[in-house]
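thread from #wetlab-drylab

HS: before we spend reagent money on co-crystallization trials with S-adenosylmethionine, can we at least see a predicted complex? here's what I'd submit
DV: go for it
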Amino acid sequence: MGPAAAVGGTCKWFDSTKGFGFLIPADGSPDIFVHRADLQWGTSSSECQATLAAGECVEYIPVTDAKTGRPRATQVTAPGGGHVQGLTPGGTPPLPRPPPPPPRKGPGTKRGRDAFEHGNYVGYYRKRCGQTLLRPEGDKGVSGETPSETSTSRVLPGDARLDVLCSFAEQHGWVRDRVVLDVGCNEGVVSLHLGLPRFGAARVHGVDIDPGLIERAHANRRKVRDRLNRAVEDVVKFHVHDYSSRDGGNAGPRGPYGAILALSVSKWIHLNGGDAGLRRFFARLVGELLPGGILVLEPQRWGSYGRNKRSSTRARANFGSLTLRPEGFVDLLEREYGMRHEMTLKPTLVDGAPAGWDRPIHVLRKEASDGTEHP
Ligand SMILES: C[S@@+](CC[C@H](N)C(=O)[O-])C[C@H]1O[C@@H](n2cnc3c(N)ncnc32)[C@H](O)[C@@H]1O
């Protein structure tokens, strides 16, 4: 089977002693069995010790096992190809280990508590990549292509929101030639796309609270450099940084920015910092925007907060006292923070796609004191 049939996923658990485990497919299909014989492992002579680490991102070819009649992952590689990483980086065959703890469920589930207290999911873009969004009305696309049709898709997971954003961004000059901040950049996929010619940002700062995710963002940036031959290091920079920290984030990168993206991050800041933390977050976003600058805000819906209210001690303590609601964020930003709502993009999921990935994306502009539109 050719590489076109490869599917993305993350390792749910892998028992190194028994040599098998399960993957969580990015396309939302049921968990799939994986055996060590199917892992593309660095040292073929030690295949018996080939292993996967829980949370590791992979690609694989799903087949139906001839003996059991059940689905099974074969040709399991690192995303984009190459050897799986396993439990120890650097190619050292890991030692057999005791059976893993009970499998941890994916993002947003009760068993995942503590692990993802900031929404710091590993393999997030593989999940998003598996989704398809219909373009909103009025979106004609840019040059008739989508990111998934460009060579970038061989290197980075796509993200259906980029398809939705791209032509509007171009039409309205939201990103091109601007200095852009991507708050909660996770593994850097959106930040890297913004720095490529398709979006054409002058410079991008991606910040995330999780050092492991920033490490992955750097690895993705190296992939873009090596495999797409794009010198993105000068354009896209990544920083470990808590954007909601009380000291105003002295250690983080500094604006002013022509555009800021805050995609699917507000819930985590709200749960962990309460209403006051969310207000600090908004104040900082607006404070770092140039007059006329653009804020792209994709808040999670209130209905999804309940699932994560026990994700950390702070979330548990704050949840009951939250009075602000995501459905009112745009009004709040207009009323109290000097922002003007420009438009809301409403992506539509294709039939049958798992719910929840079609959040409205609001675009607001910071009022310029002299009435001009652009920074
Ligand atoms: C659900 S993910 C969304 C990722 C990305 N913004 C997107 O939508 O493509 C939320 C991300 O925000 C990060 N995050 C949460 N709280 C943060 C904070 N206070 N400062 C910086 N990053 C934060 C998490 O680590 C995680 O990577």
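DV: The pocket of S-adenosylmethionine is lined by residues 118-121, 124, 184, 186, 190, 207-210, 213, 242-244, 263-265, 268-269 (CB under 6 Å).
HS: ok that's useful, forwarding to the group
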